[in-house]
Amino acid sequence: MIRVMLSLDLIDSEDQRDDLYELIEKQNWKKLNDVDTVWTLTYPNHDHEDEECFTKIKNYIALFFRKSAKELKIKELYYVAQLGNKEVISRVVRKVDGEYKAFIREPYKKK
Length: 111
Hints:
- The structure is a single chain.
- By secondary structure, the protein is an alpha+beta fold.
- It has a single domain, classed as 2-Layer Sandwich (Alpha-Beta Plaits), CATH 3.30.70.
- The protein has two helices and six strands, in the order E-H-E-E-H-E-E-E.
- The chain has a six-stranded antiparallel β-sheet with strand order 2-3-1-4-5-6, covered by helices on one side.
- A hairpin with a 6-residue loop joins strand 2 and strand 3 (38-43).
- The longest helix has 22 residues, at 51-72.
- It starts with a strand and ends in a 7-residue tail after the last strand.
């Protein structure tokens, strides 16, 4: 089993927040109580030791948010996700050259 915890921020796109939440919920993510924009998703049939499973999850999340940003015309969206005990990922989704893309970001500030 692999559990994912995700947090996101919308930039200049607050009017789309409720619609985005609807799309996220349709993908079986569960919103945590009493905190802003933190969601979890469980993959009960994914092997925590299989690196390919983590790659699939990372690709799914990036694709989902690229499609959602395009559909809802979101200006910019930042997200971070903790995938099991393996790693923290950080991405920004924005429209570049007419196409929504997800870009890898460093999850921590450099010292």
